């Protein structure tokens, strides 16, 4: 229990620091105050305190009785009155502390005040998706008119960041129009597109974005009038691929096919980038470029009723649909985001835009969510997006259907879990298989030294050269599979962890069930014995390798169903090949061991 001087000290400290519960209230909303009484305070005392200060104290729940935690409504008290009352109660001997009973809310529903106007977020089931992912770790390149992402002055031009991108993360981009490192928006289009992908969210400002914790790479290729050329756009695509982007959004299009653009998109795809493009606004039965290129995901636009918008292209080159808005009847049916005024970088506004330019960033945002849950390969992302889309039954108009963020994230997580389960099973199987080969190698080495009656046998068995050679041919350095991959490239690990006989699967193209007779034979052991027999250390390595090969071939003989290619006849002849070469390897090792 506190003493009287404790309350007096707290009161003095609160005055010195300018403490006010009103300032605390400003940090969050509450309509009740919590009072924590001492554990041994009688109910009569608590009742008298309630009557004295006119507060209706009640236990928070049946679990609060033991610790005497109570609460009361603040009613119409002002923040200052709440502050004064909490301070007075805290000073009482019977009270441990009094504090606001803050109201918390799920983060699944953003607190952005105009979020309720974003019908598009409801259409793609964003609130359920936010339960699982927020885009953290993903980098989305926005190839557009630039973004109002910074406060910057360039000569007479002054740029300001729009307020609702204040907490959005940006990575360095480039202005291919002015050839500088400040891709600021002078048009409004690129900033609006960026907002759909990653508008600052849960900040009590404006509206929400799909992958609000993703990072944006602004790449300016269109001027203040919304025009640009293929050379700049293609360079921006390559720039994004070379600088770590996971997703590219291109809400632009026009013109005919370009080999330069086709090559740039293919390059980005090869580098592991998912490319999302607007299908176009001409109302045609084919997508425009760049959506029509291979490796690009073309996005059609739908209105709030889920119907294809009258402006949207569809058909060939259209893979999926997303909310693009339709302001024909009312502007509120457009897509609402924070942007600048048209050609007015210093004007901050919220605008309803429509077009497949607005549809594409919905898909780009969902792709960023998939990256954040561990799916990074563009083929896998496209497959998940298409399989999880809400089908509309008309693939010519909607492609796979309307993108569904929640279904996409759930499918990605399910596939991740399946892959992890398969990896665990494969890892367990590989470990048991490798241990069998390893133990067989050790057994053959022990038998070898006992047969030769060598007194130094066990010393040789555990010598570095002998052990290394035996491991390379019997089981491979399989323990490397469980070491952090920062030590060696994965390709090296794959080779070194495989026994020599299994390298035919890596270099020779053999399958698990069809093996190469030259790798599964005494050929290399024979060459090593002949070449290294006259060298003391070389002989130790050759004998270790030959014994390891013998043990590997014996295990394959009795525990494998492998088919040896080029060996005619039945399964029996394959076994005879393996067994015969295994015996020959052991004989070669004994011969070398007996040779002085």
From TrEMBL:
Classification via Gene3D superfamilies: Peptidase S8/S53 domain
Principal location listed in the UniProt entry: secreted
GO cellular component: extracellular region
Limits of the Peptidase S8/S53 domain: 135-401
Signal sequence extent: 1-25
SUPFAM superfamilies: Subtilisin-like
Active site: 144, 189, 357
Compartments reported by the entry: Secreted
GO terms under biological process: proteolysis
Domain DUF5942 residue range list: 461-595
InterPro entries in the cross-refs: DUF5942, Pept_S8A_subtilisin_cyanobac-1, Peptidase_S8/S53_dom, Peptidase_S8/S53_dom_sf, Peptidase_S8_Asp-AS, Peptidase_S8_Ser-AS, Peptidase_S8_subtilisin-like, Peptidase_S8_subtilisin-rel
UniProtKB keywords: Hydrolase, Membrane, Protease, Secreted, Serine protease, Signal, Transmembrane, Transmembrane helix
Transmembrane segments: 434-452, 464-483, 506-533, 540-564, 576-593
Pfam family, one: Peptidase_S8
Entry's Gene Ontology molecular function annotations: serine-type endopeptidase activity
Family, per entry: Belongs to the peptidase S8 family.
Protein name as annotated: Peptidase S8
Classification lineage: Bacteria, candidate division KSB3
């Amino acid at each position: 229990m506190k003493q009287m001087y404790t309350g007096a000290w707290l009161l003095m400290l609160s005055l010195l620091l300018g403490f006010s519960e009103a300032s605390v209230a400003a940090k969050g909303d509450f309509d009740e105050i919590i009072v924590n009484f001492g554990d041994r305070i009688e109910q009569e005392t608590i009742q008298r305190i309630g009557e004295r200060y006119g507060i209706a104290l009640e236990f928070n729940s049946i679990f609060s009785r033991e610790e005497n935690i109570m609460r009361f409504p603040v009613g119409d008290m002002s923040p200052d009155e709440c502050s004064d009352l909490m301070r007075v109660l805290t000073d009482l001997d019977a009270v441990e502390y009094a504090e606001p009973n803050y109201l918390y809310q799920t983060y699944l529903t953003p607190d952005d005040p105009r979020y309720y106007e974003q019908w598009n977020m409801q259409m793609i089931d964003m609130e359920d998706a936010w339960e699982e992912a927020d885009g953290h770790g993903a980098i989305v390149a926005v190839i557009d008119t630039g973004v109002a992402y910074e406060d910057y002055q360039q000569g007479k031009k002054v740029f300001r960041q729009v307020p609702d991108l204040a907490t959005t993360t940006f990575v360095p981009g480039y202005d291919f129009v002015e050839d500088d490192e400040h891709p600021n928006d002078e048009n409004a289009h690129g900033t609006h597109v960026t907002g759909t992908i990653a508008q600052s969210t849960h900040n009590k400002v404006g509206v929400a974005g799909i992958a609000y914790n993703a990072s944006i790479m602004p790449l300016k290729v269109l001027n203040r009038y919304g025009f640009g050329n293929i050379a700049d756009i293609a360079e921006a695509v390559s720039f994004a691929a070379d600088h770590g982007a996971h997703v590219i959004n291109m809400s632009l299009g026009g013109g005919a096919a370009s080999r330069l653009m086709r090559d740039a998109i293919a390059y980005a795809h090869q580098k592991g980038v998912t490319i999302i493009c607007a299908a176009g606004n001409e109302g045609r039965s084919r997508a425009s470029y760049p959506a029509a290129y291979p490796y690009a995901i073309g996005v059609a636009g739908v209105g709030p009723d889920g119907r294809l918008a009258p402006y949207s292209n569809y058909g060939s080159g259209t893979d999926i649909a997303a909310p693009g808005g339709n302001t024909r009847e009312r502007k509120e049916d457009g897509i609402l985001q924070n942007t600048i005024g048209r050609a007015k970088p210093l004007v901050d506004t919220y605008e309803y835009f429509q077009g497949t330019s607005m549809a594409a960033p919905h898909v780009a945002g969902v792709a960023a969510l998939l990256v954040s849950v561990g799916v990074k390969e563009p083929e896998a992302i496209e497959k998940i997006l298409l399989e999880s889309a809400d089908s509309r039954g008309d693939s010519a108009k909607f492609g796979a259907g309307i993108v569904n963020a929640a279904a996409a994230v759930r499918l990605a997580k399910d596939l991740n879990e399946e892959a992890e389960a398969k990896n665990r099973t494969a890892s367990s199987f590989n470990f048991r298989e490798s241990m069998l080969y390893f133990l067989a190698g050790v057994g053959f080495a022990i038998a070898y030294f006992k047969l030769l009656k060598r007194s130094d046998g066990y010393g040789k068995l555990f010598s570095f050269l002998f052990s290394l050679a035996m491991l390379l041919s019997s089981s491979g350095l399989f323990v490397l599979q469980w070491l952090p991959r920062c030590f060696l490239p994965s390709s090296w690990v794959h080779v070194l962890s495989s026994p020599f006989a299994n390298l035919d699967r890596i270099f020779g193209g053999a399958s698990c069930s069809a093996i190469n007779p030259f790798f599964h034979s005494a050929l290399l052991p024979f060459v090593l014995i002949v070449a290294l027999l006259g060298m003391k250390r070389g002989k130790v390595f050759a004998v270790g390798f030959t014994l390891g090969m013998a043990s590997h071939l014996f295990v394959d003989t009795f525990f494998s169903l492998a088919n040896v290619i080029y060996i005619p006849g039945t399964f029996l002849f394959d076994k005879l090949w393996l067994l015969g070469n295994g015996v020959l390897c052991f004989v070669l090792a004994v011969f070398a061991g007996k040779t002085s």
